[in-house]
Amino acid sequence: MRRTRIIDEPISRSEPGSFVDANNMRSEDIVAKTLRQTAGTVGVATRPKVVDFTKRQKERRRANLRQTVTHVAAAVGAIAVVAAIVWLLFFSPVLRLNQDKISVSGANQWVSDQQIMAIARGQAGKSLLLVSDAAVEEQLSQIPGVSSAQATKRFPNGFDVHVEAQRPAAMLRVKGTDTLTAVDNKARVLNAVDAKSAKGIPVIDVTSVDDAVSSRALRSAVVILDAFPEGWRKDVTAVSAPTQDSITTTFANGITVVWGDDTDLKLKMAIADKVMNDPKVIGDKKQINVSAPNRPIIK
């Protein structure tokens, strides 16, 4: 039996715009192409893969749920860690200020340990991270007689407080009585003391302690007295402060110094010291007026 031989002939190409013969165009066997695409590994046609969109959607939902659960768990874990750190640092006993580990220093008979400790103990029970050094120092500076204060945290549970306590600038004595009231250089009333403790401290006679500490004249007087060297302070026998511009002091040598107000104190004190200690200048004079330091008057 003779087989018919099919000879592929080249497809004629036509020029653009010329006639095209459909018999000469190559045809494509769609069926054969489909069989080739669906043929299995052994050359047998297989059934095309069918995608189950419902199943895929369920799988995607489960994946999204797992991802959400993972994110939520991570967020909860992070919050738990932060909460644990906050509790450890601010509320646990690890950094809590213990009352028995508070130390104070610098007190004297005018500024007591009890006054300082009362302020420091107000911070007991707090985390040291919540204790404000500046706030404690500000409270301590409000105590009459305290010129400066320093508060230092001592981790993990301690607190050290140190103050510079003044001696009184002056003692106020109500006229007609022996009652003495100590005041600092801001005219603030200090602790009550006995007369023996007031030795060497200038005394100012007043009619009323309350009225005196609120007057500008007394405030100016205590500033001047506080600036005196200790040798001068113990030799002051009288202080007069009728107004803030007419402060005078009398010393044991009988010389009275008119200070005027409390301005230019260093210059006024230098002039008064030089005059009092120079017999050729002071002579038998008993008053030095340095209220105008550029023109001192000796008489």
Automatic annotation (TrEMBL):
Gene3D superfamilies assigned: membrane protein fhac
Biological processes per GO annotation: cell division
Any single Pfam family the record assigns to this protein: POTRA_1
Domain Cell division protein FtsQ/DivIB C-terminal: 180-279
Segments crossing the lipid bilayer: 68-90
GO cellular component, one term: plasma membrane
InterPro entries: Cell_div_FtsQ/DivIB_C, FtsQ_DivIB, POTRA_FtsQ_type
Keyword Isomerase on entry: no
Keywords assigned by UniProt, alphabetized: Cell cycle, Cell division, Cell membrane, Membrane, Transmembrane, Transmembrane helix
Record carries keyword Cell division: yes
The POTRA domain, residue ranges: 98-164
PANTHER family: CELL DIVISION PROTEIN DIVIB, CELL DIVISION PROTEIN FTSQ
Entry protein name: Cell division protein FtsQ
Organism of origin: Bifidobacterium choerinum
